[in-house]
Amino acid sequence: MIEITSDKIIEYLGQNPFSFEIFNVIDSTNVYAKKTISEKSSNRVIIADKQLNGRGRCGRDFYSPADNGIYMSVVIKADKTYSDIELLTIGVASVVHYAIEKVTACKCEIKWVNDILLNQKKICGILCENILERNTDKVKNVIIGIGINVKTTKDFPPELQDIAGALSTELLDRNMLIAEILKGIMKISEEFNFEKYLSYYKANSMVLNKNINYVKNGQMFFGKVIGINSSGNLEVELADKTIDILKSGEIRIGKENVKV
Ligand code: BTN
Description:
This protein has 5 helices and 11 strands, in the order αβαββαββββααββββ. By secondary structure, it is α+β, with helices and mostly antiparallel strands. A hairpin with a 2-residue loop joins strand 8 (211-216) and strand 9. It starts with 5 loop residues before the first helix and ends in a 14-residue tail after the last strand. The mean pLDDT is 93. Biotin binds next to helix 2, strand 3, strand 6 and strand 7.
């Protein structure tokens, strides 16, 4: 097992604009990032080998066992409006997807909004959280939380057995993958220009032209994804030919209910 260390990550990065905090165990790297946001500057990378209470989107947990994955939060300075960063999750999903394919040679797909799947199983989830400037609606910092199942485990909780996967049966050098992801996040934080990621995102999307279903305001909808618009929203053609626009939430390719 190759340990995660800041020295190894920096070696792969070649340069280092980040400060690193690496834990064996933590409750959640995103929660820790948030708790300590006012006392520390941005460009922070918080990594844990294991999370006791990993957080996912829509209030879900993120299973984070020791020695198996990458659980990382990156805090970057934004000083932007909400609309300036509406494509942040599209940008982050794109750079993480790119890094995974580059380091592992696995052929992955992106499931809207920001899950990454390998062989139809989720191997990565991303939770971006905005920290607002006090008494304003300006986004001061963003916390980019990334969880990757690197090594196969038989111990996934029963509810994840059929839907979660991993990148490899071996534990590859996580430092290399972390460094490649950080290179992409560095670009994001330097430019805050997300439009350029849209075409990459669409080219690697597994949902375009697929029949999907979702639950919105308690009602179930079936439709076909006909596009992803310039705001990163999903354009869905419903059975009556009307177009529904999804800004966030969870979709499913198949027949079961999910909440939006
Ligand atoms: C999702 O799939 O719903 C998002 C999962 C995000 C998990 C990562 S692991 C590192 C960071 N810390 C957390 O508690 N969550 C994110």
